[in-house]
């Protein structure tokens, strides 16, 4: 998979790309990263990438021309003619929320291009004619799209084949199955009078799996009940949820 980042701050990325799962994915040849400085696609002495908004108002707006030229250098300025497996996305607080489902879909692409927004925003013609979609990592505003782009790169890197040593670990992550993950413990079995649940020490794998599934359902119901609306649930899951709901109602 190739990921290209369009940014006015290319120095933001190299150090963080040298660590963690991003480094592993690159070393294993599963991820190729390209960083393009949008200032390299300007034609004035000041390498200007932003300007005042038409109609007035506070803030500056990223210009459409450097973005168009950067995409043209990749052969991707013509949106309808883009090859299958390629997607151009824009960081934006107005975009669709980036989720684990998004990460799984984008991880299957051959080429993902991430345009990092800045300032007051990006010339609307970019959204209308040049990018395939806008995305947000949450309901808050960052100084720019670079941290959001980094989150996306990390999320898709760890989903590439052979990157995470035990892929079962990835498949049990929160959100991967539509639910929050359960809690995990490690040695010692007791610390400061805080014991590990007995079932985890029992060696009975079926009981452990059932207990972890129940904890996953309980956490999701308590912390993110909205996820249950779209989660894939078995009949056994629904029975567990019904019992958990009764227990929570009895406590309240």
Features:
2 domains, Alpha/beta knot, alpha/beta, three-stranded mixed sheet, Trp Operon Repressor, Chain A, 252 residues
> Using only CA atoms, what is the Rg?
23 Å
CATH C-level name of the largest domain: Alpha Beta
How many domains?
2
Shape: elongated
Strand order of the largest sheet: 2-1-6-5-8
CATH architecture label of the largest domain: 3-Layer(aba) Sandwich
- According to CATH, the fold-level topology of the largest domain is Alpha/beta knot
Spans where pLDDT lies below 50 across 5 or more residues:
none
Structural class: alpha/beta
Number of strands: 10
Query: What is the CATH superfamily label of the largest domain?
Result: SPOUT methyltransferase, trefoil knot domain
H/E order of the elements? Answer: EHEEEHEHEEHEHHEEHH
Tell me what the structure shows.
This protein is of the alpha/beta class and 252 residues long. The strands form three sheets. A five-stranded parallel beta sheet has the order 2-1-6-5-8, with helices on one face. Helix 7 packs across helix 8.
Question: What layout of secondary structure does this protein have?
Answer:
Layout: E1 2-7, H1 20-27, E2 32-37, E3 50-51, E4 61-62, H2 64-73, E5 86-97, H3 100-106, E6 111-115, E7 121-122, H4 124-129, E8 133-136, H5 146-157, H6 167-171, E9 190-191, E10 194-195, H7 205-223, H8 235-251
Parallel strand pairs: 1-2, 1-6, 4-7, 5-6, 5-8
Antiparallel strand pairs: 3-4, 9-10
Helix pairs in contact: 7-8
């Amino acid at each position: 998979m190739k990921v290209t980042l369009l940014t006015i701050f290319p120095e933001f990325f190299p150090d963080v790309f040298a660590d963690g799962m991003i480094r592993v994915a690159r070393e294993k040849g599963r991820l190729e990263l390209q960083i393009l400085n949008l200032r390299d696609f300007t034609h004035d002495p000041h390498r200007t990438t932003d300007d005042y908004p038409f109609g007035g108002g506070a803030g500056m707006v990223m210009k459409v021309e450097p973005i168009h030229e950067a995409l043209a250098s990749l052969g991707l300025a013509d949106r309808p003619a883009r090859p299958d497996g390629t997607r151009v996305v824009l960081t934006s607080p107005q975009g669709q929320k980036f989720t684990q489902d998004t990460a799984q879909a984008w991880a299957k692409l051959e080429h993902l291009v991430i345009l990092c927004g800045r300032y007051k925003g990006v010339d609307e013609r970019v959204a209308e004619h040049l990018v395939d979609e806008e995305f947000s990592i949450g309901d808050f505003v960052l100084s720019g799209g670079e941290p959001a782009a980094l989150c996306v790169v990390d999320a898709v890197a760890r989903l590439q084949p052979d990157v995470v040593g035990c892929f079962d670990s990835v498949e049990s992550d929160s959100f991967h199955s539509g639910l929050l993950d359960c809690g995990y413990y490690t040695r010692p079995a007791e610390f400061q009078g805080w014991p590990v649940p007995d079932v985890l020490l029992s060696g009975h794998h079926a009981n452990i799996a059932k207990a972890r599934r129940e904890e996953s359902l309980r956490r999701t119901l308590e912390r993110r009940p909205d996820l249950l609306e779209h989660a894939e649930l078995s009949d056994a899951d629904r029975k567990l949820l019904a019992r958990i709901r009764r227990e929570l109602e009895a406590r309240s």
